Every structure is written in structure tokens, then in C-alpha cells.
From TrEMBL:
Coiled coil: none annotated. InterPro entries: Methyltransf_16, SAM-dependent_MTases_sf. This is Methyltransferase-domain-containing protein. GO terms for molecular function: S-adenosylmethionine-dependent methyltransferase activity. SUPFAM superfamilies: S-adenosyl-L-methionine-dependent methyltransferases. Gene3D superfamilies: Vaccinia Virus protein VP39 (3.40.50.150). One of its GO terms (cellular component) is nucleus.
Length: 319
């Protein structure tokens, strides 16, 4: 029996809220293929340059978004994310980004379960998770910045969840998603491809900005957002899969330290991480020694293969 259109469309989506998320291969949509009678005389190794994946999740209450052309309410979001098939690392969605996005959906729905009820620091972990939820999804202006955004899936997930949970007045803050100049075209493309989710409140859309960790200064735009528009700086710094290049750690930690200093109250730092090399964990020690940021493991998410994606929350230690 033929499947219904809705069933067919669901087969091409990735449910970030599903319990089995990460345990089965992800579906993918290719870009349109053009058929022509003309004989191609160029290189014979041309290939599909872009693919698209659709990530869905239920929107949390209390302020589900209005449907675009009806009086109904949107109860489920669908985020379209384009990736490159090239070897450019900043133009792909990696396991950590998907796992962290899924964890954020659970966080917005108050479904986070700690690692173990027997953990000696269980109360501390719960307090960190509650503080992070407030930093991201409280019905108040929040200023959130993502580092090493790549395709932007994490920032789009945060912005969509904030739009569902927050009133117009609470959306005075910003979600800034950053990466190197080479990532900007695809990052901006993905933001604008999802503009339909923010038609009734364009200010809730993520804003793409260049942030090179090797730069001596934080760009003016980011400083203006932190100091002039919100007056309180960043409430959260978000990162996924930023630990793959150990040589970049000093620059990353310096950038974190500078962003923290732009804030009236030290922001929480959320990190999605999947281990490739044990040496990557030197980032935790460097962040603590240089920037005074202490990371705590607060959860895990299944990925396509072991090990799982680890969810860490960092906080600035008092002097």
C-alpha cells in the first residue's frame, strides 16, 4: 500500500525529540537534479555539491507560534539545513551539533535527566541545568552567542525554541551565530532558508557574524550587541564540536575569556563534545587554568557511533 504524503515527508526528516535519535542513519535530500539532452563537455567527475536535511521537533508551551496563513498554532518546527559535500569542515553538520540540538529540545521541554541519581554532585548538576535553561529560554531578553557555528543548526534550534517559549517583549535580546568568513555564505543561507519560522518576529532570527579566534579583538558588532543593545552582556556561550583541532585551543580560550569580560554577569558556557582523541580533553584544563572556566558533565546523547555526545556546562569560577 502506498504511503500517505505526510508519511512520505516524515521519512525525510530527523526528529530531534525522538528517543531513537542518533541510533539510525539520517535521511538526506539532494538538491534538484537537472536533466538535459545537451552533452556535458567539462570534467567528468562533477558531483552533487549540496545536500539538505530537515530537523523537526515539537514546540514547547506556553507561546507556540502562530501559523503563517491561518489562525492555527504551529506545534512542530521543521528546520532546513543545507550542507556541502566538499571536505570543508565548517560546511557540514557534525554529530555533536545534532546531539546538542536534541539535548536543547529536551531542555526546553523540561525533560533533562541527569547522568545518575547516585552522582555525588547531583544537586550541583541540577542547579547548573536550571541556570542554563534560564539563560537560554527565560521569558526575558537574552543575549546568546555560538562559536564555531558551521551550518548554524544549533543556533537555529535555540532561536526557534526561544520564539516558542518567549513573548515578543522577551525577544529583545539576540542569538548571534559566529564562524570564520569562509562559513558565512552557507550560514546566512541556512538562516534565511528558515525565515518562515520568524515571520511574526524577525528579531528572533539568529544573526550571523564573523568571529576569528585568532583575532586580537572581538569584532565591533559583537561588542555593540553585548554592551549597547542588552547592557548586560551575554547570558550564554554555546559551542559544538570545537575541540577537534587542539592547536586552536589557546585562541579559543582567549576568545572565551574576552566574551566573558563583555558581560556584567559571567555567562554559562554550553559545550557539545564527541571524543576523537583523548588529547582533546586538554581544552578543559586550559579553560580552567587560563580563563577560570570550570566545566561539568551534565548529560549525554547517543550518536551514530560510540562514543556518545557529551554535554558540558562551564561556569566562571569566583576569584
Amino acid at each position: 500500500m502506498a504511503s500517505s504524503p505526510s508519511a512520505q515527508s516524515q521519512s525525510f526528516t530527523i526528529d530531534l525529540h525522538a528517543k531513537e535519535m542518533g541510533r539510525i542513519p539520517f535521511p538526506v535530500l539532494s538538491m534538484p537534479i537537472q536533466f538535459t539532452s545537451h552533452i556535458h563537455k567539462g570534467p567528468s567527475d562533477l558531483k552533487q555539491e549540496r545536500i539538505e536535511r530537515i530537523y523537526t521537533f515539537p514546540l514547547p508551551s506556553p507561546n507556540t507560534m502562530k501559523a503563517l496563513e491561518t489562525n492555527d498554532r504551529i506545534t512542530r518546527a521543521a528546520i532546513r539545513v543545507t550542507e556541502q559535500t566538499s571536505f570543508d569542515l565548517d560546511k557540514k553538520v557534525w554529530d555533536s551539533g545534532i546531539g546538542l540540538s536534541s539535548w536543547l529540545v529536551n531542555l526546553a521541554h523540561n525533560e533533562i535527566v541527569s547522568l545518575s541519581n547516585e552522582a555525588p554532585n547531583l544537586d550541583t548538576i541540577k542547579a547548573l541545568i536550571d541556570a542554563l535553561r534560564d539563560s537560554l529560554f527565560a521569558n526575558q531578553p537574552r543575549c546568546i552567542i555560538e562559536l564555531g557555528a558551521g551550518t548554524g543548526v544549533v543556533a537555529l534550534t535555540i532561536a526557534t525554541l526561544r520564539r516558542a517559549l518567549t513573548t515578543i517583549e522577551g525577544l529583545q535580546g539576540h542569538v548571534i551565530t559566529t564562524d570564520l568568513p569562509s562559513a558565512m555564505p552557507l550560514l546566512e543561507h541556512n538562516i534565511h532558508s528558515n525565515a518562515r519560522l520568524f515571520l511574526d518576529c524577525s528579531r528572533a532570527m539568529p544573526e550571523a557574524a564573523v568571529l576569528d579566534w585568532d583575532s586580537d579583538e572581538i569584532p565591533d558588532f559583537i561588542q555593540v550587541v553585548a554592551k549597547e543593545r542588552t547592557s548586560k552582556g551575554f547570558t550564554a556561550i554555546v559551542m559544538a564540536d570545537v575541540a577537534y583541532n587542539t592547536s586552536s585551543f589557546p585562541s579559543l580560550v582567549r576568545t572565551l575569556s574576552r566574551l566573558v569580560k563583555l558581560s556584567e554577569k559571567p555567562p554559562l558556557i554550553l559545550l557539545g563534545y564527541k571524543e576523537r582523541d583523548p588529547a582533546e580533553r586538554d581544552l578543559w584544563n586550559m579553560a580552567k587554568d587560563v580563563a577560570g572556566i570550570d566545566f561539568s558533565l551534565v548529560g549525554t546523547k547517543s550518536g551514530m557511533r560510540d562514543p556518545p555526545i557529551e554535554i558540558w556546562i562551564g561556569q566562571v569560577m569566583n576569584d
